[in-house]
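Quick illustration, no need to memorize.
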Amino acid sequence: MIPDILLAAALAATFAACVLAALAWRAAAAAPARLQLGLDKVLAGNRAEAEFIRNSLAAAEGRLAGAIQAGTTDALKQAFSEIGTATQNMASAVESLRRAAAEDSHRTLELLETRLAAIQTSVNEKLHEAVEQQMTNSFSRVLEQFAQVQQAMGEVQSAAAQIGDLKRIFSNVKTRGGWGEAQLGAMLEQVLPPGAFERDFALRDGSRERVDFALRMPSRSALWLPVDSKFPTEDYERLLLAAEAADVEAERAARDGI
């Protein structure tokens, strides 16, 4: 029976050492780098304590064997007492390590939660800054495009005003005719040499019927080609309206008028 007790005590010591090592390594694997040094110290202490328990059990086993050989009751009681003490120490060490591992795990979780909260805060701040920057850039582009549109509208309004001024100017037939005559004279001066045309030319001697210009044609006798400048705005507008309406008769009449 006593050898069985010794075997059980030895197995219990070995199991306790394995439990101590497993718990310590599990805590070390789950802990971050900042807690690794502390866990290594705890692991070293637990190993030393387990080694002390094994040595105590070995010594108790030796004394128990000696007591058995001596056959004294006091020696047996002392040996069993030492084995019981070693077993209690082993149980206390296992419980102490369990509490230490639980505390380390709790601290690790708190540290991880703190880090995750800091990371989440940083990500939220960066995301908020990126969204604000994007919105600012988009708003700036919208304002710039709006300013360009306003500028273009201003130019269109200015052009419309100028067109309106031109329409008011050319609504007078005499003014429109004078402008057409000036434009035709400028073109003839650019393309023809001096003496190749005459202004305000009388078609016949003594006749009051005159044309704005007459072109001298190459001939042995005096031959002139009369050219009268016109600005048929109304006829041209009628031609455009007839073309848009696909009115063939009105378009033909407008062309004849021009």
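Residues 7 and 114 are 48 Å apart (CA to CA).
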